[in-house]
């Protein structure tokens, strides 16, 4: 399981771990979690729009200052996989290239494109586990 430090690297210092994170997700993450991910260069605006939440919705969420529980859960799922990919490849740039390149082990899809669903994220996570353990991907 990924350590909370990996989430903090991507989302900022205020990310708790364990059940505290569950509570925070249920309450809705502050909108600055999105800003931190984008400002850190982890996701582009287009990728965020496609995977986490549409730009119009983001604009509306900025007015309230918080994401919904569902949006928060989706963001944490994506961030968890971004961190796991960086950890697996040991280099953020290699991880970024791998995430955006079509992969035959994922039906020709770029791994990043699959992170919009839980099943897609699981497929990416399983593939990363195989890569980390030296099993042919």
UniProtKB/TrEMBL annotation:
Domain Antitoxin Xre-like helix-turn-helix: 20-80
InterPro entries according to UniProt: Antitox_Xre (IPR011979), Xre-like_HTH (IPR046847), Xre/MbcA/ParS-like_toxin-bd (IPR024467)
One Pfam family named in its UniProt record: Xre_MbcA_ParS_C
Gene Ontology molecular function terms on file: DNA binding
Span of domain Antitoxin Xre/MbcA/ParS-like toxin-binding: 87-134
Protein name as it appears in the record: Toxin-antitoxin system antitoxin component family protein
Organism of derivation: Niveispirillum lacus
């Amino acid at each position: 399981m990924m350590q909370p430090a990996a989430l903090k690297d991507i989302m900022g210092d205020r990310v708790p771990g364990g059940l505290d994170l569950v509570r925070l997700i249920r309450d809705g993450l502050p909108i600055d979690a999105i800003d931190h991910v984008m400002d850190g260069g982890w996701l582009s605006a287009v990728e965020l729009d496609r995977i986490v939440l549409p730009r119009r919705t983001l604009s509306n969420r900025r007015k309230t200052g918080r994401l919904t529980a569902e949006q928060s859960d989706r963001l944490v799922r994506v961030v968890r996989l971004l961190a796991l990919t960086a950890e697996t490849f040991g280099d953020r740039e290699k991880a970024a290239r791998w995430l955006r390149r079509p992969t035959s082990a994922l039906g020709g899809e770029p791994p990043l494109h699959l992170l919009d669903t839980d099943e897609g994220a699981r497929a990416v996570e399983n593939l990363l586990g195989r890569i980390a353990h030296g099993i042919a991907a």
